[in-house]
Amino acid sequence: MATFILNPNGTGSISWTASDGGTATYEYVDSDDTSDYLYSATNGQRIIVDLQSPSDAGVDSGDVDTINSVTLKLKAQKTLLGSAFITVQQLGTAADSSSISNGLDSITLTGSWATYSGAAKTTSDGTDDWVYGDLAGLQLRVNQFRNVRAGQNQVAYLYAEIDYTPTAVAVTHNAPFFGSNF
Predict the structure, then answer these.
(1) What is the value of pTM for the model shown?
(2) Are 80 and 120 in contact (CB under 8 A)?
(3) DSSP of 37-74, one letter per residue?
(4) What is the sign of the dihedral through the CA atoms of 163, 117, 134 and 60?
(5) How far is CA 129 from the centre of its chain?
């Protein structure tokens, strides 16, 4: 099996605050750099980002035989003491125009910057297997869950990791066969 990453490339809806006080966009969560991030301490605030297409990530449909799972990942931290909770979700529009919605995952943030993962989702909607075309409409959502009593939750990187089986490469042998009668 192989994997590739889909990074944010569009802002769906963001109610978290940008680390530098600027306008909160996907650019605050599109790389592994913790100098720019989005933060929140307020219940109900959310981050929704659109993801790049697989072909923009360098993986064409002919390269993929089967999509095994899609996992939402994020680099995040909780400032000050204690822990805090967020929920994460994959959503968007599937290739057949149905909704991508395969449940919420709860994540407990603690301490300094770390990479957290939602559950590996093997279907786009709880029933249908992923297909390559579904990935073009994929969005990621992070929800602030409960008010944080002290400090704030911070997210610096938000992405999807795609686990897939590559298309088999046909091997042909064109070398002539020479008998052993030399």
Answers:
(1) 0.89
(2) no
(3) -EEE-STT-EEEEEE--TTTTT--GGGEEEEEEEEEEE
(4) negative
(5) 17
Spatial distance between the Cα atoms of 38 and 75, rounded to a whole number of angstroms: 11
d(CA 37, CA 125): 29
Per-residue model confidence as pLDDT tens digits over 61-99: 999 999 999 999 999 998 887 778 899 999 999 999 999
Q: Are 121 and 102 in contact (CB under 8 A)?
A: yes
Q: Which residues does 17 contact at the CB level (< 8 Å), separation at least 6?
A: 24, 38, 39, 40
Cα separation, 182 vs 175, whole angstroms: 17
The token duo for 60 is 């064409």
CB distance 86 to 78 below 8 Å: no
**Which parts of the chain sit beneath pLDDT 70?**
147-149, 170-182
